[in-house]
Amino acid sequence: MTTASNAHAFPRSDRSSVGVWWWTVDRWMLGVVALLIGIGVLMSFAASPAAAARMNIGDPFHFAVRQCVFAGVSAVVLISVSMLDVKGVRRASFLIWLAAIAVMIALPFIGHNAKGATRWLEFGGFTFQPSEYMKPALIILVAWMFAEGQKGQGVPGVSIAFALYVVSIGLLLIQPDVGQTVLITIAFGAAFWMAGVPMSWVMLLGATAVAGLSSTYFLFPHVASRVDRFLSPDKADTHQVDRAAEAIAAGGFFGRGPGEGVMKRHVPDLHTDFIYSVGAEEYGLIFSLLLVSLFAFVVVRGLYRAMKLSDPFEQVAAAGLFVLVGQQAIINVAVNLNLIPTKGMTLPFISYGGSSMIAMGLTMGLALALTRRRPGAYTPNEGLAKAGTYA
Questions:
Q1: Per residue in 300-311, pLDDT tens?
Q2: I want to staple 132 with a disulfide (CB 3.0 to 4.6 A). Which of 82, 197, 359, 377 is the partner?
Q3: First-to-last C-alpha distance (Å) of the chain
């Protein structure tokens, strides 16, 4: 991944914060994430004219220009956060979680309501969704508590972790946001399992989660409506997923070409939840598989690096963050392919949205900070010869 110019700019002897960061961060991961951000900007230019026309916005590139700004901020956040040490990661996550929870508590009183949910703060023409930032911070805190509980020093780590989880999903369900609740529950369960908690507890958590998820069908009318549309498409309005499926099918193997998409004009939320269908129509199946492969690379390489870490907190926290990113990508693509009911979940780094893009930069920044090479950070079988840099 390195070039002669990069090596000249940051020689191994450079002990500055930037130089140390460059030689210790996972540059393969960094490069793939940069590619995903670039693809997200490209997709925003493809979707923006049609989305602007549907919403009667005069500037056809309104969403594309804003996405460029969001992408730039996300990149700065990602790099800045990835320079933190482990203690900095914990402190930052604690402050972010507290701030996000405080805003979520205030949402019912000052939040912006859209599509029957109050999930955003609106100011200056921008919307802010605090739950996007709460997710990665919660995973870090939960892993921290699990690790503290394992030390046997009287810290009720598991109890505190469950309390943090319950508070977080309780506020999400008030909004309501069942999709984010499902996502956080899966990531929490993964962290719970990786922390070495007894299997009986894991099975109990799984059974409780299934029961809780099933109850949302009866508690939230919009959830029941989405499930009914998925199970009985002939008896319900499936316009959204039908138009997305038509756009994907129209792309074929190689797509219609950049800017040549036709079906995308009829896809609701084409620049956010259904951006995958826009890419599939214009760039085809080959592009779609490449995009999925990039996410698979991030998750598989991330989990591999996480499992090689020697510290229990770093291992569980990093793995939980990669599960979070991977699961969100899986849910979005599955919705676009009509494999599961619609969830209202963005595609990481690809979908339009400031909160989503910047929060993903935060998530990957935290993951990269935890998987940076530090003396003693990796298990002995990694070898001392590799301790200074990534291949």
A1: 999 999 999 989
A2: 359
A3: 8
